[in-house]
Design goal:
Oligomer: single chain
Distance between the termini: 23 Å
Shape: globular
Number of strands: 10
Helix content: 40-55%
Strand order of the largest sheet: 1-4-5-6-7-8-9-10
Structural class: alpha/beta
Order of helices and strands: EEEHEHEHHEHHEHEHHEEHH
Length: about 300
């Protein structure tokens, strides 16, 4: 298989066939991000020849070992940026080589959705694209701008509504701590307010971890931004859950989370809030800080 650099996938895509469609990120400007710094280029799309070879290899494994993948996850920071015709061709080849495949997922930026017309989104849904993972991070306008996300709160609302109208489901990544010291509760409230107007299948919380290689680290050294404390982050997560009123899954399952959480809202809200209350009330700040400091990679 053609894999370039570190391959990132959401925890819930563990059973998917990972197919490299792109490498790197088209935006590559988020102040906190260090995920693709091991690449010698910011972004590259995979040649169709490589994708075809990888699908042939997967098909051979399917015949040899009896593996029947129900889902393919396109790797790279935002493969959904690819042009409509190319995404449709990739979907066609997936169905040709992996007939058991029922859906195709990928990471997507909010701006990627805006590149497709409503009709193109509907056709992508028909071709199998569903369950996109969107790093919305927050609906805190000030944080989105400071972190150079390249879109605003209203863009998230408009583009995700377009996905819903096309029948394409999606999941959010929320970045706990992105609003900075003293502003986490406010960021959580406005994010919950936005999510309550939409229908994400899942909201996945990740803890902001600042590495020295990031631009954000330099902003902290200059005194332009202050990070939240560890217990403050858990208070922020608690505030997010308290203010969510929609039916959705909530997960904090990645390595950035010292405590792993999963629940279905609203059914498990009380349980989740109790765990978070225990953390903020009795877990030592230094213990959580030590976990963050020793987290070499996400």
């Amino acid at each position: 298989m053609h894999y370039t650099g570190t391959i990132w996938r959401p925890p819930y895509e563990a059973g998917s066939l990972l197919l490299e469609a792109t490498a790197g990120c088209t935006h590559h400007k988020c102040r906190f991000c260090t995920l693709y710094q091991d690449l010698p280029f910011p972004f590259r799309l995979s040649p169709l020849e490589d994708i075809e070879e990888d699908l042939q290899e997967a098909a051979k494994q399917r015949r040899t070992w009896g593996w029947e993948w129900q889902r393919v996850f396109l790797t790279g920071a935002n493969p959904f940026v690819l042009k409509f015709d190319l995404l449709m061709e990739i979907a066609r080849r997936i169905k040709n080589h992996i007939p058991s495949c029922e859906s195709i997922g990928s990471f997507a930026r909010i701006t990627d959705i805006g590149l497709k017309s409503d009709e193109e989104l509907r056709q992508l849904k028909s071709a199998g694209f569903d369950g996109l993972t969107i790093g919305m991070e927050t609906a805190d306008e000030a944080a989105l701008q400071f972190m150079n996300k390249g879109y605003g709160k209203n863009d998230i609302f408009v583009q995700c509504r377009r996905l819903e109208q096309a029948g394409i489901s999606y999941k959010f990544f929320y970045l706990v701590g992105i609003s900075g010291k003293g502003r986490g509760a406010e960021g959580a409230k406005v994010t919950a307010e936005l999510c309550n107007q939409l229908h994400p299948k899942l909201i996945g919380a990740n803890m902001l971890t600042v590495y020295k290689e990031s631009e954000l680290y330099q902003e902290i050294r200059k005194g332009n931004w202050q990070p939240e404390g560890e217990k403050e982050k858990y208070s922020e997560m608690k505030m997010l859950i308290e203010n969510l009123t929609i039916d959705t899954e909530f997960a904090a399952m990645g390595a950035s989370n010292a405590v792993q959480l999963y629940g279905v809202l609203p059914k498990d809200k009380t349980k989740l809030l109790a765990v978070l209350g225990e953390i903020t009330g009795s877990v030592d700040e230094k213990e959580l800080e030590d976990y963050r400091k020793n987290l070499r990679h996400l």
